[in-house]
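Lecture 7 notes: from sequence to structure.

We start with a single chain of 310 residues. Read the sequence below before looking at the structure.
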Amino acid sequence: MWAYILRRTLQAVPTLIGVTMIVFLLFNVVADDPARTKLGPKATPEAVAALSAELGTDKPLHIQYLRFLGESASLDFGDSWSTNRPVGEMLEDGLVPSVTVTLPAFFIATMLAVALALFCAFYRDSVADRTTVIAAVAGMSISSLAYIIFGQYFVAFEWNLLPIFGHEVSLRGIVFLFLPWIIWIALSFGSEVRFFRTAMLEEMSQDYVRTAAAKGLGTRKILFKHILKNAMIPVITRVVITIPFLFVGSLLLEKFFGIPGLGDLSYQAIIENDFPVIKAITIFGALLYIIFNLISDVLYAVVDPRVRLK
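Now the structure, written as tokens:
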């Protein structure tokens, strides 16, 4: 297993280099001149030249790319162009608010979806199963903005059940997270239930399930010891591959609810053409995706003895 992990880690290096090349081309070649973008169309050529020298964008492209590659390797992206704060410090400040919004809601939604999918698979084609599928599809069809507007207007404003806006890093501040959690669960629940239900149904059609039932095993043991265990590979794939995107936050939820996370930071960086912050978040997301993709492969071997990592 360790040899496999080492090989996959080495294979990740050219992948990250490819990501840095794409990001560099998008922001340093395809995009407009950063200095002119920051100063505006009325800036004088002298001011643009001075800011380009300060930002280092007056250097040849290969020099700029090598500098960016070094920043990516050291995870030190310098200072923000809009706030002049270290980008790493800004990412650290935004990570905790993002995680407090996304991770709890994601795991609650996943646990509920797995349980309901297992129930629907067992009672497939029943009224409960068909009702759940219809509700899941209906929930998936509603725009995320509709959930946010409904939650803020009715739940927070009209009914005054939860705060409409704000964030606080304390136990008292958890009340600000309830409504974003509810909206996150509502947004993701339908697709999660449909995906997990398909995985459960595929396992229930296998011969070992009929054999276990013929041997007289109880329903609970068949569902949880056999079906759920053998359906864990698609479940792990879905869960682990989603986790990296949780760390970079939810742009809409953070923006609408005033949560100073990485999603809101990304939005502000795009609006203000803050390229160092955008580059850092892009590399951070790519690195997390590679790491968790490796973790998912290792977990396959843990939950399924038939899987061999070579």
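Residues 87-303 form a domain with the MetI-like fold fold (CATH 1.10.3720.10). Keep this in mind for problem set 3.
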